[in-house]
Design goal:
Number of strands: 8
Number of domains: 3
Shape: globular
Structural class: alpha+beta
CATH architecture of the largest domain: Up-down Bundle
Strand order of the largest sheet: 1-4-5-8
Length: 420
Amino acid sequence: MDFNDSIEEAAFREECREWLTENAPRKERPDEVFGRGMSAAELMQAAREWQGRKAEAGFGAITWPEQFGGRGGSPIQEVIYRQEEGNFKVPVGAFNVSLGMVIPSLFVHADPEVSKQHVSDALHGKELWCQLLSEPGAGSDLGMIRTRAERCSDGRDGWIINGQKVWTTLAQFADCGMVLTRTDPDVPKFAGMTTFFIDMDAPGVEIRPIRQANGDAEFNEVFFNDVFIPDNQRVGEVGGGWKVTLTGLMNERLSIGGVMPPELWRTAIKQMQDCDLGYGQSYGQGDNRTALQDSAMRQQLSDLYLNAQGLWLLQCRGLTALGQGREPGAELSVAKIVAARTLQDFSYFAMDMKGTQGILTAEDLGDSWQLVEQLWMGAAGMRIAGGTDEIVKNNVGERVLGLPPEPRADKGMTFKQLLG
């Protein structure tokens, strides 16, 4: 395992750092968050503008082929850029699904004319794409989707879509979406699906934001009510929807390096130093004790530090594989489980230190509380997104440890038979 950049990687890191220094303000604190006081629409507009600037400079989609406007770079370069960008106060994350999962599926499987029409606009932030996969009855098992696409019976060359999707990230701001549908219920569940792309303002598309506990609405329900899609908006072959979906899911591997906020344990130390436990007067001492002086609190800090360091070591293994042109191993699946739990533990810890004030928001407690608030609201979702803890553990057990797979009662059955 290599902990250091190669000569080429170090040169690329310096290039990223120089460009970011010239184009964005550096964070004053590791826990500083972009967009304090901005509305969701304002944040989205800022993200579009920042994506456009990155694209012009060659950092918008580093791993994309050059013919699509990318840099033709390596996955390790993408990770290096994200590491450096994390030190600057800029909008991040809004285009992860659009550029990291959806558009790569588009230029691999769609007609070249479709790519020519949409890829450049997506790269420069002019178009935002969402991914319409999960449904109320098909989350971890996407093979159970029920959103139907049926051939038009009125002479039009196209399809009519009816159904519902849920947990669709940023659908309310998306210009286009890629939707996985059921086109043949008389074959096994993964063989009867087809993918289309759709204009999100098309007649019959209804978007309902899902209001989260923090007041934001990052996710949405999307309903399709007799939505017409011409056949030239089909992506891939009829019945080939699962292949298209897998292309997008495989690109998720590039999200490594962007899960843990930089130096989270140092943020915890600063909060412990600022937290007065009020024990001093009770024990007749001259001054009160901070959380950092409390042995039980220091034990929790140690646990946080060890988890963060363990995640860094797992990341180094993944980055070493990417840098050598190999696929990362199971370390990335394990890292997802540990990272989500660690972020939750950090937010619990920070809130416990505040006592009754721990239920207050950043509006009451100041900017330094914004990261805690975001992690408290969002870390639980990380344990669901991209596969629940249970699903990921099953994958690790079966595909890495070689344990016997769980029995599958649906093997060889058609989708219609599964519905009973």
